[in-house]
Amino acid sequence: MSEDIKKRDITSLIEKEAPNLNNLLDPEDVSVFKEMTGELRDTWTKKQMFRTQTEMEFSVLNDAKYPTKAAKYWQCVREQNVFLENLMSLSFEYRRNEVKIKRLEKKVAEETDELKIELAQIDLDEKRYAKASMQLTARDRMREIKLWSHYKKKYDDGSFDTKNVDTHQLESYHLTMKNKAETLTQGSSQPEVFNVLGQLQSIERIKKDHVQIEATKKPILPGLTSKG
Question: What is the pTM of this model?
Answer without folding.
Answer: 0.78
